[in-house]
Amino acid sequence: MNASEPEPSGAPDAGLLAEGERAVWAALGRVVEPGDERVGELIDERGPEEALARLTRALPAGVEVPDGAREIARGALIGARLICRGEVGWPTQLDDLGPARPVALWARGSASLRVLAVRSVAVVGARACTGYGQRLAADLSASLTERGWTVFSGAAYGIDAAAHRGALVVGGPTVGILGCGVDQVYPRANEQLLRRIAEHGLLLSELPLGAHPNRPRFLQRNRVIAALTRGTVVVEAARRSGSLNTARWAADLCRQVMAMPGPATSSLSAGTHELIRRGAVLVADAGEVVEQVGEIGTDLVATAEGRERLRDALAPETLRVLESLPASARGGSVESLVQRSLLGPDVVLRRLYELLSLGLVERLGAHWRLNPACKGTS
Amino acid sequence: MNASEPEPSGAPDAGLLAEGERAVWAALGRVVEPGDERVGELIDERGPEEALARLTRALPAGVEVPDGAREIARGALIGARLICRGEVGWPTQLDDLGPARPVALWARGSASLRVLAVRSVAVVGARACTGYGQRLAADLSASLTERGWTVFSGAAYGIDAAAHRGALVVGGPTVGILGCGVDQVYPRANEQLLRRIAEHGLLLSELPLGAHPNRPRFLQRNRVIAALTRGTVVVEAARRSGSLNTARWAADLCRQVMAMPGPATSSLSAGTHELIRRGAVLVADAGEVVEQVGEIGTDLVATAEGRERLRDALAPETLRVLESLPASARGGSVESLVQRSLLGPDVVLRRLYELLSLGLVERLGAHWRLNPACKGTS
Fold it and tell me: DSSP string of B204-216?
């Protein structure tokens, strides 16, 4: 990624911490290695400021004390923002990780993580996948997206890339969680894909800007994928595939663990078959995935209180799109919403998918309309 | 099948009932529709003779009273023999069906059902299967046979036929359980296959000679397949495939229910995937099947008492082959056993597979030897 990209239009979530507090979290992100529970406990017991002070005192001589404010400013220059614990934008699902939760998340892209995480599924699998697996991942992902579910994945080669592409093909958002800084381009060949994910959804990382990927970081990254989503689907995996590690995290976190079958003769399905034997739910299509992870958004819109909670979580842009929707049962086309909202077509579509994932709107072919179940919200 | 086939060399199992009693069971087989529990209870309470008397009294005027002795004589002419309850050859596994168990079984082929059933697996599936399913069934079956397990199936088109063929290809026995009389050729195109099954293993049916197949009979036939075997593997099946009925019987009888996965996109694997979702064990190869059904034969040969029980179950021919095996660790070739036993090579091979399924012998490439764990038996 480079600085020539448009900057995000500002933090989409209101309710940021004070600048000084944000700088502390940014600095902590620089000194804490992902998943370090002891440091996590220290932060929980002493608070971030004292934890940071202790950690920096313990730094070996000659190691630079991190400057959180400078980190945040540097991020802003390249379109990366920090989401801190305690802020409105913080996805509280991560708190299920206890002291192992990330100290903060770097994000590229203007979509709201909290909104996208409400109805989200991780779609992961082998880097060295088959054509069958690739098609399966792309189709599953496209179909989940059309049903208003957001696909989260690891932006790696193979199944991950196919999953992100499937979501993008139908115009939906998708979230890539990286094992390196959000400013890094890894793997190199996914440069275009990474840019498109940031444009239409989000790139996320708990690692500081500039951080390089390595195996332990990939494994810790997997816990974030599992924690942010309601369930993990492994599409294709050999017996020792790293994607099985994401499934293990999902199981530990009491998320749904799902796996797709493949030919009994395919070594690249041996891992998913093993998962199924150990209790993962066999899923063959998006309908079966949705059956497992449940209709959270729809459940929320069913009550007035739920609808209010949803509205509170909406970014101003999203609210504008919601309010541009006509009250008619026929709804409106993207073009008509562009005219009413004075937002660009890309932005309108992205926000519509957010609203879809929340169950606030429905798609009827090229038209979008308010979900009849929650007309009271607009 | 026709009368030009060689007659079986006589009942391979000693311990037949008296002729009159056998005639009663044969006659019952003619008047009882498979799986009729009320009649089964009547037989259990009153004994076969009184049950037959009552049933024939209840026959509509003009319906011929069956002549069991004539049935048995007619069977002998075409190489079919009757296995009655209470005889040494009766597979006691069927008693798990309670009053729904068959009254008697007709068999074509000289192999011992009791021996073959000790380590047996049902391999079943769709008639209209894919090439993938066909290869899978044949490979699984060949591999199970080589490990000393006998494959039972329904001798239908598709997966069933592939399963039988896989066993025959590696020279093993296999058991076909029919939904019609054992003298019927159904389906017509399987004529060659049916003949080879009878030559190298067994064709079985609880239906009387001349009985035609129909849907209820196929469904009842499935309970016999499930009951005779230690577990059922469904290789490929659409959502409403009849083979799922065999799996249901297996589950009801506390047998292992296993299913093979296939592409998530294949409607012909939708049935096996559904089975797996409902608790069937996903198996990808013969090793995984054996893991589920356990090493019964090997367990038996581990004790002196078990070895005696096994020897008692052996047909004289089988015993002759067992006694022809040299005591050396190298064992002997089929040719050398033909010379020692004065039996034909086909017979020797068939009996060796019986002994293999009992765990009494081992195969070392082209050589066969006594299982070192049970040298005391010969």
Answer: EESSPTTPPP-HH
Nearest to A136 among B136, B264, B282 (CB): B264
What whole-number distance in Å separates Cα of residue B165 and Cα of residue A122?
43
Question: Would the CB atoms of B264 and A260 count as touching at under 8 Å?
Answer: yes
Residues B306 and B348 in one domain: yes
Q: How far is CA A74 from CA A83, A110, A375, in A?
A: 15, 17, 43
Same domain, A217 and A309: no
pLDDT tens for A191-220 read 999 999 999 999 999 999 999 999 999 999
- Residues A301 and A354: their CA atoms lie apart, in Å, by 14
The string of pLDDT tens digits covering residues B205-235 is 999 999 999 999 999 999 999 999 999 999 9
Q: Are residues B289 and B315 in the same domain?
A: no
Residue A349's domain comprises: 296-377
Instruction: Tell me which residue of B96, B140, B90, B137 sits closest to B117, measured CA to CA.
Output: B90
How large is the ipTM?
0.76
Q: Please identify, among A294, A309, A336, the residue that sits at the C-terminal boundary of a domain.
A: A294
Tell me if chain A has a CB within 8 Å of the CB of B292: no
Question: The CATH number of the domain where A315 resides is what?
Answer: 1.10.10.10
The answer to whether A133 and A236 have CB atoms below 8 angstroms apart is yes
Strands B80-84 and B104-108: antiparallel
Chain B residue whose CA is closest to A235: B264
Do A224 and A372 have their domain in common? no
Of B135, B277, B283, the CB nearest to A282: B277
Is residue A75 located within the same domain as residue A193? yes
Binning chain A into helix, strand and coil, the percentages to the nearest 5 are: 50, 10, 35
Q: Which of B263, B277, B281 sits opposite A263 (nearest CB)?
A: B263
Strands B150-153 and B367-370: unpaired
pTM (2 decimals)?
0.80
* Residues lower than pLDDT 50 in chain B: 1-13, 376-378
Tally C-beta pairs within 8 A across A and B: 54
Q: Is residue B302 located within the same domain as residue B288?
A: no
**Final residue in a domain of this structure, among A294, A311, A339:** A294
Q: What's the CA dihedral at B176, B179, B181, B186 to 10 degrees?
A: -80
What are A215-265's pLDDT values in tens digits? 999 999 999 999 999 999 999 999 998 899 999 999 999 999 999 999 999
Based on the structure, what is the number of domains in chain B?
2
Q: Are residues A226 and A329 in the same domain?
A: no
Most B-contacting residue of A234, A267, A282 (CB-CB within 10 A), to test interface: A282
A287 touching B (Cβ < 8 Å): no
d(CA B205, CA B102) in angstroms, rounded, equals 9
